[in-house]
From TrEMBL:
Record's keyword annotation contains Flavoprotein: yes
Necessary cofactors: FAD
Name of protein: FAD-dependent oxidoreductase
Keyword check for Oxidoreductase: yes
InterPro entries: FAD/NAD-bd_sf, FAD/NAD-binding_dom, FAD/NAD-linked_Rdtase_dimer_sf, NADH-Q_oxidoreductase
Pfam families with a match to the protein in the record: Pyr_redox_2 (PF07992)
GO molecular function, one term: NAD(P)H dehydrogenase (quinone) activity
Superkingdom of origin organism: Bacteria
Species annotation: Brevibacterium rongguiense
Gene3D superfamilies the UniProt entry points to: 3.30.390.30, 3.50.50.100, FAD/NAD(P)-binding domain
Ranges where the FAD/NAD(P)-binding domain occurs: 11-192
Keywords: FAD, Flavoprotein, Oxidoreductase
GO annotation (BP), single: aerobic electron transport chain
Family: Belongs to the NADH dehydrogenase family.
Length: 418
């Protein structure tokens, strides 16, 4: 069996997407070393790729591979053992510290649409573009990718029809926001078909399936915890629970179950992947903070003084001229009675999400349509809350304040900047 000697006793990162690359870059910048394993011949940033599917030029931004101290290894991971990563070609890559940053993989299209295109990498995007010019396009899905593709197709002169998987698009958003986004796209020529569990393949000559994604984790050793959906369960320091402190999971495939971020559901957002990757890479580069060759403890000891990873989850989706931002808790984790600020119907407003119905309920999330400043203000307010701002004497935005006529979150954030 082949073995990569450079990896012996060192750090191995599985996955060369946003999280894995950010971790490798932080390690490299601090003089660290690691092996970075990825099966894709051309790993690229997916957000700009999906948003430019039908533009004149495909926005292809490859993730960097040539980093000082980082050995890039092409290979498909077959399984993870307690001390090595096993590849499909028989290679075993030993590790002292393991970072799983495998991200998500697209769910397959329903059997009736087996020939539908999936957009998972640069090659898939090029294949769709080659067949799309001037054609009618059916899009199966309700999420961000489906709407980004639909609006891009409409703006490029195609005739897109979105076959929803429920009553509204963007099921993770508040219904007021989702309706506004749907209506803005419909006015621009995007058609929306009601939910059909088995859409007819003959309805369109070309199909794109964007029916969600699932964690792309390889089989893990017994005792390493993952939930029923396949997310690796990690502690406040992003260590896989049950792995003895030597294995981490970051990015879209990880679910934080302990510490200040424990209340947040898994977030498929590039911002979270980049934040976790950079945080973990910097930590692993410093042996005093639990990195290095030896497995760390289940929890940092008194001498480590390592703060847990914390950051406000946020997401952006540019759907033609429609700008959609989210920050903090999703609508499903907040009180359903959102406070609407501005005018969502024209693409310039916010749905402010609160923990409960009372006037003293604090802001826990925000959905923004329009230019970034209002979204940036929401992130700043939510970050103060996450950092324990209320305990430090800093004011927290309440429902009662937000519901006042003429309320402007940007003004409030400036007035209460700590």
């Amino acid at each position: 069996m082949a073995e990569s000697t450079d990896a012996r006793g060192g750090i191995v990162i599985v996955g060369g997407g946003a999280a894995g690359t950010a971790c490798a870059q932080a390690l490299s910048a601090a003089g660290g070393r690691a092996v970075l394993i990825d099966a894709r011949p051309e790993p690229a940033e997916l957000p700009p790729l999906s948003k430019s599917l039908f533009a004149d030029d495909l926005d292809l931004r490859p993730h960097p591979r040539e980093l000082p101290g980082i050995e890039a290894l092409a290979g498909t991971v077959e399984r993870i053992a307690e001390d090595a990563v096993h590849l499909a070609d028989g290679t075993a890559v030993p590790y002292g510290t393991l970072v799983l940053a495998t991200g998500l993989r697209p769910r397959p299209a329903p059997p009736a649409l087996r020939g539908a295109h999936l957009v998972s990498d640069a090659e898939a995007a090029r294949g769709l573009r080659a067949q799309a010019p001037g054609r009618e396009l059916g899009i199966l899905g309700s999420g961000f990718l489906a709407l980004e593709a639909a609006r891009g197709a409409a703006d490029a002169g195609l005739t897109p029809t979105v076959h929803l998987r429920g009553a509204l698009p963007l099921p993770g958003l508040h219904p007021h926001t989702a309706r506004a986004v749907r209506d803005l796209h419909a006015a621009a020529g995007v058609r929306f078909a009601p939910y059909d569990p088995e859409p007819a393949p003959a309805a369109h000559p070309l199909w794109l399936a964007a029916v969600g994604a699932e964690p792309a984790l390889p089989p893990l050793p017994q005792g390493w915890q993952s939930d029923v959906r396949g997310f690796a369960e990690v502690d406040a320091w992003l260590r896989i629970i049950g792995a003895g402190g030597r294995a981490y999971a970051i990015g879209d495939a990880a679910h934080v179950l302990r510490g200040p971020m424990a209340g947040y559901p898994p977030t498929a957002a590039e911002s979270v992947a980049l934040s976790q990757g950079a945080w973990l890479g910097a930590r692993l580069a410093d042996p005093r903070l639990g990195g290095g060759d030896e497995p760390g403890p289940d929890e940092p000891g008194a001498g480590e003084a390592v703060a847990a990873w914390t950051d406000v989850p946020w997401h952006w989706s540019f759907q033609g001229p429609v700008r959609v931002f989210t920050a903090g808790m999703p609508a499903s984790s907040a009180d359903p009675d959102a406070v609407i600020v501005g005018d969502l119907s024209v693409g310039r407003g916010q749905a402010l999400l609160f923990e409960s119905r009372g006037d003293d309920a604090e802001l826990v999330g925000a959905e923004t349509l329009g230019p970034p400043p209002a979204h940036t203000a929401a992130r700043r307010v939510l970050a103060a809350r996450l950092e324990g701002g209320a305990g430090e004497g800093r004011a927290q935005l309440t429902r009662g304040e937000a519901a006042r006529e003429g309320f402007d979150l940007r003004q409030w954030a400036r007035a209460h900047r700590g």
